[in-house]
């Protein structure tokens, strides 16, 4: 059974920091690219950051560059999103996403976590 379980969300003041974690199970984690998405009320879900299966390639949304960092630990089947200098506009539900395939002969799958709320407010 595939599971992506996010944790670390909460309420933080502007300028503060949070670290989101996503624990993965039920698939071969090291074969999947991992991403963090977010969705604010009334807005579409957007890609915040992604990291390749081996952790070599990383990308982040322009509006969070220099503030957010994505990392992964393939030995622990986990991916983190460190968020610094948080702004009210970062308020959203943050989702962990996995995309990949178990082998070259298998189809590509995409999995989602249940989301964790991040609220930036004074």
Which key terms come to mind for this protein?
single chain; 122 residues; mainly beta; four-stranded antiparallel sheet; 11 strands; 52% strand
Ordered list of secondary-structure elements with their pairings:
Elements: E1 3-7, E2 10-12, E3 18-25, E4 32-39, E5 46-51, E6 58-60, E7 68-73, E8 78-83, E9 92-100, E10 109-112, E11 116-120
Parallel strand pairs: 2-11
Antiparallel strand pairs: 1-3, 3-8, 4-5, 4-9, 5-6, 7-8, 9-10, 9-11
Q: Could you describe the 3D structure shown?
A:
- This protein has 122 residues and is mainly β.
- It is 0% helix and 52% strand.
- The chain has strands at 3-7, 10-12, 18-25, 32-39, 46-51, 58-60, 68-73, 78-83, 92-100, 109-112, 116-120.
- The mean pLDDT is 96.
Rg measurement, Å? 14 Å
The fraction of residues assigned to DSSP E strands is over 45%
Number of helices: 0
Mean pLDDT: 96
Indicate the structural class.
mainly beta
């Amino acid at each position: 059974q595939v599971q992506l379980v996010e944790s670390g969300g909460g309420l933080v003041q502007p300028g503060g920091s949070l670290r989101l974690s996503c624990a993965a199970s039920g698939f071969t984690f090291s074969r999947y690219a991992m991403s963090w998405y977010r969705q604010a009320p009334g807005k579409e879900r957007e890609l915040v950051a992604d990291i390749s299966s081996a952790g070599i390639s990383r990308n982040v949304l322009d509006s969070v560059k220099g503030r957010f960092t994505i990392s992964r630990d393939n030995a622990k089947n986990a991916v983190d999103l460190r968020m610094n200098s948080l702004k009210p506009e970062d308020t959203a539900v943050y989702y962990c996403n996995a995309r990949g395939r178990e082998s070259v002969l298998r189809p590509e799958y995409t999995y989602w976590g249940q989301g964790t709320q991040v609220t930036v407010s004074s």
